[in-house]
Amino acid sequence: MSVFDWIRPTFYKNRWYIATGVFCLIVVDMLQLVVPRIVKHAIDGLTALSIPSDRLSLYGLWIVAIALVMGALRYVWRRCLIGMSREVEEELRNRLFGHVQTLSAAYFDRMKTGDIMAHATNDITHIRMAVGMGVVALTDAVVMGFAAIGFMLYIHVELTLWVMLPMPLIVFGTRFFSRRMHARYQRVQAAFSNLTEAIREVFTAIRLVKSHHTHDFEMERIASHSKAYIDENIALVRITGSLFPMMVFFSNISLVLILYVGGRNTIFQRITPGDFVAFISYLGLLTWPMMAMGWVTNLIQRGKASLDRIDRILRTSPDIDDPKSPLATGIAHGHVAFEHVTMAYPASEASSGKPVLSDIDLDVPAGTFVGIAGPPGSGKTTLISLIPRLYDPTSGEIRIDGVSNRRYSLEGLRSHIAFLPQEPFLFAGTIRENILMAKDGIGDDAVWEAVRMAGLETTVRSFPDGLDTVVGEKGVMLSGGQKQRVALARCFIGHPKLLLLDDPVSQVDVEIGQRILQSIRSRIPAATVILVSHRMSALRDADRIVVLDRGRIIESGSHASLMATNGYYASVYRLQEIEEYRHAR
C-alpha cells in the first residue's frame, strides 16, 4: 500500500472538480501565451509605422478582454483545486484523529502528545499545500513550459535551441537537491514535534512552574528546543537556498543568450522586432515554470515527508482490538476472575520490563465490594486497568461472567464498566457535560442523582449556573476535591455493572468519603465495586480486602480478619487512624 492511498479516495471523489480546475488553469495558461502574440503584432506595426490607431485600440481591448476571462477562470480553478486541498486536509485530519482514538493505551505511553499534535496540524498543513498549490504549480510548469517552448520554436528554432541549453542542468540540479530536501524535512518536522511537546508541557504545568519559580529553567529548556528547530531549518535552507538561486542563474543565462543571439537575428532581419519582444516575453513565461519546478519540488518533498509521518501512525495497529467473533451480549452480572495473571510493561525509559503483577489469582463475585490496598508501585492501578482492557496481561486470563474479557467487543465490555482513574480529568465544558460525557437520553433527574451520590449536590447548587457552570480547562475553576467528585459522578451515570475506582476519595475528607462509599453500596447494590485506595478507612466496609506488594497478593480477607493478622493492612490502618484522630482534634 502506497502512502498516497490515504489521499487517493478524496482525489477520486473530487475528480470532476479537479478536472474543471485543471481545465480552467490550462485555459488561463493558454491565454497568457496569446498576449505576447498580440504585443508582437502591435510592435511590428509600430516599427513599420503602418498601424492605425483603431487597430492599437483593438489590440488593447483584446488584452483587457483576455485579462477579464483569465480573472474569472482563475477564481474557478482556485475554488476547485484549493477547495479540494482543503477537503484533503479535513478528511486526513478526521481519519488521523479517528485512528488515534482506536490505538491502545500503551501507544500513548511511548508517544509524545506534542508529536501527535504536530502530526494533526503542521504535517497535515504541508500535505494540503502539496496537493493544492503543488498541483497548480506542477500543471503550470508542464503546460506553460511546453506551450512557451512551442511558441518559441514557431518564432525561431535555432534561437529556441540556444535558450534550452541550460535546461538539462536545471533538471539535474532539481533531482540532486530533492533527495536531500526530503531527509531534511523529516528532521525539521521531528524537531517541531519536540518543540510543540515542550511548550505544551510547560503551559499544562504553568501553575507548578510559577509556584516553584522555575521560569528561567523552563525558558532555557524551550530555548534549547527552539534552537534545535531553527538549526534544522537553517540546514534545510542551505539546500532550498541553493536550489532557487540555481534556477534564477540558469534563467538569466537563457536571457543573455536571447539578447545576444536574438539581437543579432533582429539586426540582420532574420526575425522581426515584434518576434524578438514576443520571444523575450515567452522566456519570461518559461522562467516561471523553471522557478516553479524548484517550488514544486520544495512543496512536494515537504508534503511527502509529512505524509510519511502520518502514514506511520495510520499503519499502526492497536495492540488491543475487537475479537474476530465478539460475543453478541455485553456484561450481564459483573463477576470478575483473575486466573494466573502476570503483567509486564514493555521495557522503556519509564519501565524496566519486569512484571508489575505476578501470578494473580483473584475471584470477585458479582455485586461484591472488593478493596485493593498496598504500597505505591505494588500494581494496584495496573490490576484494575486490565479489566476494561486498557492493557492486556502478558499471561493468564481475566474472565467476566465466566467468559474471557478478550471475547467481548470493546464497546460491549467498556459500556458496562465505569472507570475512575487515579488522576481525574475534566474537559473545558460545563459540569453537566463532564458528567454526561456525550451520553444521550439522560435527563436532569439522573444527573442530579449522580451528583448526590458523589456528595456534590450542595456545592453544585451553590453555583449560580448550577449544572451549567463552566469548569474551565482541566476543571481549573474547581478545587481538587470538587474535580474528583465530578469525575466520580460521571461513573454513576447509567448504573454500570462494574465500578473500578482508583483512589476515589483521596482528595475529600474522611466523613465525605464515607458518605460517598455508603451511597454507592445503597444506591447501586447490584454493581460489582473494585476500589483502590491508600486510605485504609475507605476499605473498611469492603466484603473483601486484597493487599498487593511487588505485584503479588500478600494478604486477603475482611477488615476484621486482616486486623487480626497484624500484617501490612493492620499496621497502616492503625497509623492512619492515629493521624485522622490528630487532625480531628
Automatic annotation (TrEMBL):
Membrane topology summary: Multi-pass membrane protein
UniProt keywords, alphabetically: ATP-binding, Cell membrane, Membrane, Nucleotide-binding, Transmembrane, Transmembrane helix, Transport
Gene Ontology molecular functions: ABC-type oligopeptide transporter activity; ATP binding; ATP hydrolysis activity
Transmembrane segment boundaries: 16-39, 59-77, 130-153, 159-177, 243-261, 276-300
SMART domains for this protein: AAA
ABC transmembrane type-1 domain segment(s): 19-302
Places the protein is found: Cell membrane
Recorded GO CC terms: plasma membrane
A Pfam family the protein falls into: ABC_tran
Top-rank taxon: Bacteria
Annotated InterPro entries: AAA+_ATPase (IPR003593), ABC1_TM_dom (IPR011527), ABC1_TM_sf (IPR036640), ABC_transporter-like_ATP-bd (IPR003439), ABC_transporter-like_CS (IPR017871), P-loop_NTPase (IPR027417), Type_1_exporter (IPR039421)
CDD domains per record: ABC_6TM_TmrB_like
The ABC transporter domain, residue ranges: 336-575
Entries under PROSITE patterns matching the protein: ABC_TM1F, ABC_TRANSPORTER_1, ABC_TRANSPORTER_2
Protein name: ABC transporter ATP-binding protein
Annotated source species: Desulfatirhabdium butyrativorans
